[in-house]
Amino acid sequence: MCRFWLSGMVAQRFGATFPYGTLTVNVVGSWVIGFAAGWLVTHDAAFWAPLVKVFVAVGFCGGLTTFSAFGLQTWSLVLSGRWVSALVNIFASTGLCLGGVALGWGLAQKVF
Q1: 72 and 97 housed in the same domain
Q2: What does the alpha-carbon distance between residue 98 and residue 57 come to, in Å, rounded to a whole number?
Q3: Residue-wise pLDDT tens digits, 40-77
Q4: Closest listed residue to residue 24, CA positions, set 65, 73, 72, 76
Q5: Can you tell me the mean pLDDT for 21-49?
Q6: What is the DSSP letter of 104?
Q7: How many domains does the chain have?
Q8: Same domain for 54 and 89?
Q9: Closest listed residue to residue 64, CA positions, set 24, 20, 108, 97
Q10: Which pLDDT value is given to residue 101?
Q11: 19 phi and psi, to 5 degrees?
């Protein structure tokens, strides 16, 4: 519901000629998951930390956007010094997902 509301509000404000709403929810979700992960690094021993992790990262951010998970996983690769893996993840995810959309679109056009 947050994705629908925020994306729609942004699109109404800035128009639909560019996917500003989607970009906004992706950036907000990425910020929230980054904040939560960074906060949990220092508070992970607290008994309620797993609940926060599940609620914020999986629940809220997962409902808002899966792009936030992509961002966190790529950032984790960067933090561990695995730059090549991070770059492969960026280009593979972007390219394969765009390719998947194109393939699905093309198949739908032929089937229906």
Answers
A1: no
A2: 24
A3: 888 777 777 888 788 887 888 888 887 888 898 999 99
A4: 65
A5: 84
A6: H
A7: 2
A8: no
A9: 24
A10: 81
A11: -75, 60
Q: Are residues 92 and 70 both part of a single domain?
A: no
CA–CA distance, 1 with 38 (Å, rounded to integer): 25
Q: 18 and 71 in one domain?
A: yes
- Please give the C-alpha separations between residue 90 and each of 5, 14, 36, 68, 103, in angstroms, as whole numbers: 28, 28, 22, 13, 20
- 77 and 91 part of one domain: no
Q: What is the mean pLDDT of residues 29-36?
A: 86
**Are 35 and 64 members of one domain?**
yes
Domain that holds residue 67: 2-81
- Both 55 and 69 in one domain: the answer is yes
Give the span between the Cα atoms of 68 and 54, in whole angstroms: 14
Rounded CA-CA distance 76/32 in Å is 15
